């Protein structure tokens, strides 16, 4: 005969009971307490003294303060700092004015305008040779108010003309001074280099420069530079003087200070009648 107290078939067994004597969590401080009473408060003297606990624990540790700018911290070898336009060993520029860096820039911070090299004598109206090959970067500007130092422009450059240095001290008190132009970005002349424009090494082609066949300026190039020093100086890009900002409008490359600006719908910016220089941003 079946037991009358047995649970019916298919019914749920009763839930297990909580063991006796286990502390029940208190609603006050969250800690276990058999009676549920609140914890004993800390003595009154602990609050003012306990606030200095972090101070007392760290005052005898080694100081990690960096003495900047007296002792600037060394950067990593591949640090993304200020850009630099590099030169060939004889002083000619590597930039060919292809504008690939400007198109690769996600912040639209680079403005490049290319021009053709001209081997016509300067005295006969020639504009000179600034790089091997056909073209060079006549205008090159980087707006460091927009630049995010991502390095995409470096990857896009086909001639390794644009690289990034370890210089990170770019702070200024004037927005216009953070528009870096070509004369500010060009690498300084090293030993054996001549300032452009000047002819290529005689007997060399453009590809020979990238194959490492040119190591320094030749005697013929030095002689040409001495004979045409005054003429070459007259066709070099002028030193950039930052114009004042005009109500947020930007001037494209080559704009002269004091020239009236006209609005150009094609560029969406204030523009002068001549070739332009931006004072507030770059343009692709």
Description of the molecule:
This protein has helices at residues 46-50, 53-58, 100-104, 152-156, 182-185, 206-210, 219-227, 229-235; strands spanning 24-25, 32-33, 83-85, 110-116, 135-143, 162-164, 179-180, 262-264, 269-271. It starts with 23 loop residues before the first strand and ends in a 13-residue tail after the last strand. With 284 residues, it is α+β, with helices and mostly antiparallel strands. The protein is elongated. The chain is 16% helix and 12% strand.
Helix segment count?
A: 8
Strand order of the largest sheet: 4-5-7
Report the sheet with the most strands, covering strand number, pairing sense and barrel closure.
3 strands, antiparallel
Number of domains: 2
User: Residue-averaged pLDDT, rounded?
Assistant: 76
Broad shape: elongated
The percent of residues in helical segments reads 10-25%
> Low-confidence segments, ≥5 residues, pLDDT <50?
240-284
**Can you tell me the CATH architecture of the largest domain?**
2-Layer Sandwich
CA radius of gyration: 35 Å
User: What name does CATH use for the topology of the largest domain?
Assistant: Alpha-Beta Plaits
Kindly report how far apart the N and C termini lie. 97 Å
SSE run? EEHHEHEEHEEHHHHEE
Tell me the structural class. alpha+beta
The CATH class of the largest domain is identified as: Alpha Beta
Could you tell me the number of beta strands? 9
Strand content: 5-15%
């Amino acid at each position: 005969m079946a037991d009358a107290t047995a649970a019916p078939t298919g019914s749920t067994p009763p839930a297990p009971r909580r063991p006796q004597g286990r502390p029940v969590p208190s609603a006050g401080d969250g800690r276990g307490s058999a009676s549920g009473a609140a914890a004993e408060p800390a003595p009154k003297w602990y609050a003012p003294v306990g606030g200095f606990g972090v101070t007392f624990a760290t005052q005898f540790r080694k100081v990690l303060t960096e003495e900047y700018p007296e002792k600037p911290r060394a950067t990593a070898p591949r640090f993304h700092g200020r850009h630099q336009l590099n030169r060939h060993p004889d002083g000619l520029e590597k930039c060919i004015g292809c504008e690939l860096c400007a198109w690769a820039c996600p912040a639209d911070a680079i403005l490049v305008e290319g021009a053709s090299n001209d081997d016509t004598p300067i005295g006969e109206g020639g504009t000179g040779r600034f790089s091997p090959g056909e073209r060079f970067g006549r205008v090159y500007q980087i707006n460091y108010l927009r630049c995010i130092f991502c390095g995409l422009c470096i990857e896009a450059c086909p001639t390794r003309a644009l690289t990034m240095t370890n210089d990170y001290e770019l702070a200024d008190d004037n927005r216009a001074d953070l528009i870096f132009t070509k004369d500010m970005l060009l690498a300084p002349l090293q030993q054996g280099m001549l300032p452009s424009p000047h002819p290529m090494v005689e007997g060399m082609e453009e590809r020979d420069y990238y194959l490492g066949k040119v190591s320094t300026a030749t005697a013929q190039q030095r002689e040409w530079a001495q004979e045409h020093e005054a003429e070459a100086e007259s066709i070099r890009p002028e030193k950039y003087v930052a114009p004042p900002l005009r109500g947020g409008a930007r001037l494209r490359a080559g704009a002269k200070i004091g020239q009236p600006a006209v609005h150009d719908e094609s560029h969406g910016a204030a523009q002068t009648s001549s070739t332009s220089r931006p004072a507030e941003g770059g343009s692709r």
